[in-house]
Design a protein that fits this description.
heterodimer, A: about 110 residues, mainly beta, 12 strands, B: about 120 residues, 7-stranded mixed sheet, 4-stranded antiparallel sheet, globular
């Protein structure tokens, strides 16, 4: 079973719009970690955030915010007032307590149109 | 601070040749991961090391692939013989693993784009 599902394969929005990237995960562990990574057109993978399963507080960092809801096994990522530089592939990922591996979703390709 | 360093950045080789990819993790990190990224399969974990010891190599495609970590600051991924289907971007990543069950984020190198003709 796929452990991290990013149902949105590709999204296009006009600059300055808000956009939310969905992430649904599956695990039987009570302790786990969730991550978001950004892969811009240049190709590198950039770490954005890490959240552990015991911390359901939403996080805000500038125009970025994350909504973690254990009840729905979701860890969604919102970009407010999007900019062209936000165009990238965004990966949601999960690490279960049993090992150090990070399981990546398939990614969502985000296009911000000028 | 230096991030994860990978070399070469690009490699073009002919089918049947041996290819060696190199990685230097971030100083102080004790876990190292090798990934492969293709359009068809996405980002796949090939193998990871903890304290220089291979922990899980279940993602290594076949015997043509091998990886080593002779010390805390260097790892190699070797493909011998290479095949066109090995064409992909290979990423190395490192993280700090305290051994308490806590998982910290991985930091990725810039990747090696491998083309096998």
């Amino acid at each position: 079973a796929q452990k991290v599902t990013q149902a949105q394969t590709e999204i296009s929005v006009v600059e300055k719009e808000d956009v939310t990237l969905d992430c649904v995960y599956e695990t039987r562990d009570t302790t786990y970690y969730l991550f978001w990574y950004k892969q811009p057109p240049s190709g590198e993978l950039v770490f954005l955030i890490r959240r552990n399963s015991f911390d359901e507080q939403n996080e805000i960092s500038g125009r970025y915010s994350w909504n973690f809801q254990k009840s729905t096994s979701s860890f969604n990522f919102t970009i407010t007032a999007s900019q062209v530089v936000d165009s990238a592939v965004y990966f949601c990922a999960l690490s279960e307590n049993r090992d150090d591996k990070i399981i990546f979703g398939k990614g969502t390709r985000l296009h911000i149109l000028p | 601070d230096a991030g994860v360093i990978q070399s070469p950045r690009h490699e073009v080789t002919e089918m049947g040749q041996e290819v060696t990819l190199r990685c230097k993790p971030i100083s102080g990190h004790n876990s190292l991961f090798w990934y492969r990224q293709t359009m068809m399969r996405g980002l796949e974990l090939l193998i990871y090391f903890n304290n220089n010891v291979p922990i899980d190599d279940s993602g290594m495609p076949e015997d043509r692939f091998s990886a080593k970590m002779p010390n805390a600051s260097f790892s190699t991924l070797k493909i011998q013989p290479s095949e066109p289907r090995d064409s992909a971007v290979y990423f190395c990543a490192s993280s700090y693993t305290p051994g308490t069950g806590t998982t910290y984020e991985q930091y990725f190198g810039p990747g090696t784009r491998l083309t096998v003709t």
